[in-house]
UniProtKB/TrEMBL annotation:
It comes from Streptantibioticus parmotrematis. Residues 197-378 form the Peptidase M16 C-terminal domain. Residues 41-157 form the Peptidase M16 N-terminal domain. This is Insulinase family protein. Residues 242-262, 448-470 are annotated as: Disordered. Pfam families: Peptidase_M16, Peptidase_M16_C. Keywords: Hydrolase, Metalloprotease, Protease, Zinc. The keyword Protease applies. Residues 461-470 have a biased composition (Basic and acidic residues). The keyword Hydrolase applies. Belongs to the peptidase M16 family. Residues 448-457 have a biased composition (Low complexity). InterPro entries: Metalloenz_LuxS/M16, Pept_M16_N, Peptidase_M16, Peptidase_M16_C.
Length: 470
């Protein structure tokens, strides 16, 4: 039986459920922003269509912020934040949320780490209390650290080391795309290195990055802005203020030469490859980033896309292929630099270099002639529909709003992006294709064979620098 936890049992100011709400568009009342005296930012997206609320605390820290020699530290620390806090015993967070009918999780990305839960709306104060308590004082102990190093080590082995294709596109692709540590290193890390992390390092990481001024509280669903502000002040307001650390930005000049790295793996059955291209800076609203996202749909996604028709159906080179943003998990979920990645699983005997050459040929063709307007409009409509449908679950919606607001100061873009995508014309897609076609070839392969040892800076593999230019 858990020790008693001082969790409020009632939420003042009950919220009436009324019709209307999200329904695929921005909240009727817009987004509400506020800031506490200690620097904690607040974002509220009310949606009273169902008695459900989602709460996320998003911290401006991720894989790019972890120190050299401590690859995978940000993810390990995310695990440590679930090991109890000053007034919440170990495992109590999970039991309390589950008992209230809710769910929870945490996710680490290159530039941010998000902790979120979805509960019946009466559980709003419970979620805020739990998040505030671990923002104030997580239980960073030797026992908890040893336990989570073991858990993370098992996760690395299951998802990456023992999975022949677990490194596609990342963490393998970063090492051929970038030279600077922040962007090139393996964000999973290696279990043997993580085993040397100390509690003192965890305490220093927490003090630097887990302050109110470096965090954003996001609430979506059946709650009013006034109620959220009142409860946030009650639970977060007394947490001491401290300066936010500098943001990790940029990666120096673009590297001119072609690069390839091969990763043999004894469990690989098919040869697979991943290629990457630098995307435009996602920050400017009127920038070229959305056109590159739509280009990926034209080029590779869907059975009638350009590369599907050529490499899968006509030439029978690839068994399957797809393109997506390669670092942040979804569009706009990391700062510049971001990567567009193409992943292909090849038929036996197929040459990955020839398959990549075909990709560059099709990019050149699209740059010259652009896509057909009717085909582009159909793909844009499909993309927009899928994007809005994915926002319906509150757990994903709260994460995307948090990422867009924290990284770009523009949560409204979550709803405006489908409109922006549908307004893109053939000329913008042709320009995006030309920009990608001009970039050097950066690609990795996974081939059947004996595995090479992993390193903290990047999974092992032979790195070939193949001259300058595309």
């Amino acid at each position: 039986m858990l020790p008693p936890v001082p969790v409020p049992v009632s939420v003042p100011g009950s919220v009436a459920v009324r019709p209307g709400g999200f329904r695929g568009s921005a909240p009727a009342g817009g987004l509400h922003r506020a800031r506490l005296g200690n620097g904690l930012r607040i974002l509220v997206a009310a949606d009273h269509s169902a008695p459900v609320v989602s709460v996320a605390v998003v911290y401006d820290v991720g894989n790019r912020s972890e120190p050299e020699g401590r690859e995978g530290f940000a993810h390990l620390f995310e695990h440590m934040m679930f090991q109890g806090s000053e007034n919440v015993p170990k495992l109590a967070h999970a039991k309390l949320v589950n008992a209230a009918g809710g769910s929870f999780n945490g996710v680490t990305w290159p530039d941010h780490t998000s902790y979120y839960q979805v509960l019946p709306s009466g559980g709003l104060e419970l979620a805020l209390y739990l998040e505030a308590d671990r923002m104030r004082a997580p239980r960073l102990t030797e026992e908890n650290l040893a336990n989570q190093v073991a858990v993370v080590g098992q996760e690395i082995r299951r998802k990456v080391v023992d999975n022949p294709y677990g490194g596609l596109p990342h963490p393998h692709l970063q090492a051929v795309m970038f030279d600077d540590f922040a962007n090139a290193h393996d964000g999973w890390g290696a279990a043997d290195r993580l085993a040397t992390v100390t509690v003192a390092e965890c305490e220093a990481f927490f003090a630097e990055y887990y302050s109110p001024a470096n965090a954003l509280l996001v609430v979506c669903g059946d709650a009013t802005p006034a109620l959220v502000e009142d409860l946030a002040e009650r639970h977060f307001g007394a947490i001491p203020a401290s300066p936010a650390p500098p943001t990790v930005r940029g990666c120096g000049p673009r590297l001119p030469e072609d690069r390839h790295r091969d990763h043999p793996h004894p469990a690989a059955v098919l040869r697979a490859m991943a290629a990457g291209w630098r995307l435009p800076d996602p920050a400017p609203r009127d920038g070229a980033y959305p056109a590159a996202l739509l280009l990926a749909e034209v080029l590779a996604n869907g059975t009638d896309s350009v590369l599907q028709e050529r490499l899968v159906h006509r030439d029978a080179v690839a068994q399957q292929l797809s393109m997506r943003t390669g670092l942040g998990g979804a569009p706009f979920e990391c700062r510049d630099p971001d990567v567009l990645s193409l992943v292909m699983f090849l038929h036996p005997g197929a040459d990955p270099r020839s398959a990549l050459d075909a990709g560059y040929e099709e990019l050149a063709h699209l740059a010259h002639r652009g896509p057909a307007p009717e085909s582009l409009a159909r793909r844009a409509a499909t993309w927009a529909t899928s994007w809005l449908r994915a926002l319906d679950p509150l757990g994903l919606r709260v994460q995307r709003l948090g990422a867009f607001e924290l990284l770009h100061g523009d949560a409204e873009l979550v709803w405006d992006l489908p409109v922006r995508i549908r307004a893109i014309g053939p000329a913008e897609v042709a320009d995006a294709a030309a920009a990608l076609a001009a970039q050097p070839r950066r690609w990795v392969t996974v081939t059947p064979g004996a595995a090479e040892p992993a390193t903290g800076a990047g999974r092992a593999g032979r790195l070939d620098r193949e001259g300058v230019g595309a």
